[in-house]
TrEMBL record:
Domain of life of the organism encoding this protein: Bacteria
Gene3D superfamilies named in the record: ABC transporter involved in vitamin B12 uptake, BtuC
Name listed for the protein in its UniProt record: Iron-dicitrate transporter subunit FecD
Gene: fecD
CDD domains found in the cross-reference section: TM_ABC_iron-siderophores_like
The species this protein was found in: Vibrio variabilis
Length: 325
């Protein structure tokens, strides 16, 4: 556990450095000293930029990345599949399809309903996935390929909606690429509320997920109710992913990369993996949004493009590694 504390503190420092850099970088460059002083309450010429625009965007990127990472950790733990994550399995694409469909057909719908609409879409996508893949849940490559096929199907549905409702295309494009642009303080209460509500459940489930790694029969023999734990874990994971999608769109691969990186650093004990995984996920999306802003100024790339550039090759590597698993 001391090693876990050291790793967690180190990753927190990495996140903090990225956070300060993220708030200071942009069309108006703000020094790290001025950023820190402004956050501590000192008035400055750039106070509005820091407090009104960049700080909430930084917090949203962190919370969304942490939520996606924790969701991926729970999914991989419950299905014992190294290739499982909400985006790879089509869950986040299903959530995106639901949000785009409602947004296209009912443009006046309140944005406060988006998390719940996304949950419905993600839940339906999960039910479809497990009904099609019930015989190959423990076969990594097969489950991943079914998920990729479903994600392609849901993406085709999104494309159809964009063509059928062209007037809404500018609003709906965010769900295709994933972006933190334009996110503000109004989105943070949703993210913090759901994360604070679901994180304690994930912590309680951590020990049971460790037992799941030993196999269903062993876990059941040690007193774990297999069906209830699996259902609860999937519900928590889907909710986290869908809330993230409802705020920032379909940002891929964080739920795949962050759990692998956390296990590489600490092993397989979930109670230690949870904070490390969330810090890695938050830092990944934060850095992706940062580089998306500063690589091609004044053009700003969606953060989802940056995560896909990293996650795509990594997924291909994992798929080749686990093709006989």
């Amino acid at each position: 556990m001391p090693n876990a504390i050291k790793v967690t503190l180190s990753l927190f420092v990495v996140w903090l450095l990225f956070a300060i850099w993220h708030v200071g970088a942009g069309a108006v460059q703000i020094s790290a000293t001025e950023v820190v002083n402004t956050l501590l309450g000192d008035s400055s010429d750039n106070e509005f930029i820091v407090m009104g625009y960049r700080l909430p965007r930084m917090l949203v990127a962190t919370l969304v990345g942490a939520s996606l990472a924790l969701s991926g950790l729970l999914v991989q733990g419950i299905v014992r599949n190294p290739l499982a994550s909400p985006d790879i399995l089509g869950v986040t694409t299903g959530a995106s399809l639901a949000v785009v469909a409602v947004n296209a057909m009912f443009p006046d719908v309140s944005a406060t309903l988006f998390p719940f609409i996304a949950m419905v879409g993600g839940g339906i996508a999960t039910l479809v996935l497990f009904s099609l893949a019930r015989r190959v849940l423990n076969h990594a490559a097969a489950l991943a390929l079914i998920g990729v096929a479903l994600a392609a199907l849901f993406s085709a549905g999104v494309d159809f909606l964009l063509l059928a409702f062209p007037l809404e295309i500018n609003i709906s494009m965010i769900w295709l690429t994933g972006s933190v642009w334009g996110r503000n303080w109004t989105h943070i209460p949703y993210l913090i509320g759901f994360l604070l509500a679901l994180l304690p459940i994930a912590v309680v489930l951590a020990y049971k997920l460790d037992l799941f790694a030993l196999g269903d029969e062993t876990a059941q023999g040690l007193g774990v109710n297999i069906n209830n734990v699996r259902l609860l874990t999937l519900c928590v994971a889907i909710t986290l992913a869908c809330v993230a999608v409802s705020v920032c769109g379909n940002i891929g691969f964080i739920g795949l990369i962050a759990p692998h990186a956390a296990r590489f650093l600490l092993g397989n004990r979930h109670i230690a993996l949870i904070p490390v995984c969330m810090l890695i996920g938050g830092s990944l999306l934060l850095s992706a949004d940062l580089f998306a802003r500063i690589l091609m100024p004044p053009t700003e790339l969606p953060a989802g493009v940056m995560t896909a550039m990293i996650g795509g090759p990594y997924f291909i590597f994992l798929l080749s590694r686990y093709k006989h698993w």
